Amino acid sequence: xxxxxxxxxxxxxxxxxxxxxxxxxxxxxxxxxxxxxxxxxxxxxxxxxxxxxxxxxxxxxxxxxxxxxxxxxxxxxxxxxxxxxxxxxxxxxxxxxxxxxxxxxxxxxxxxxxxxxxxxxxxxxxxxxxxxxxxxxxxxxxxxxxxxxxxxxxxxxxxxxxxxxxxxxxxxxxxxx
Length: 177
Description:
Cyclic Phosphodiesterase, Chain: A; 9 strands; alpha+beta; single chain
């Protein structure tokens, strides 16, 4: 049973720049840069029939290439931080692309996404990292420069059943424009 999600790939130069944020935080499990991405829709573990339907319905999404802006570093989880992320600006074209993914994946028969879309790139998953240590880390490294790139395709990824972080495999790519 494949575990699927859709997303945007990062240019290799941006991924390389984000690796400069690695290190210096106890309890962080850093994601390999080749697995950096912006998740558009987590689908989860699905049977092969649903996977086929998702694959076909995603091809019906037609959008122009879009500019994606990285705004800086942050943490998810509040008082119990669980991830270090690069924040992505929730610009209208990105939100519209994500909404199209949600519609098509639901049309395929998947359950609705229960979480609000918050675009980001996961850089590290945290285990037992103290909020103070995370705040100190962000004070030192959180001022990642604002960077914009143009996404010219989105992809359907698969991953192995694990705690996250890859390796991710591109199962299909869909051009934008």
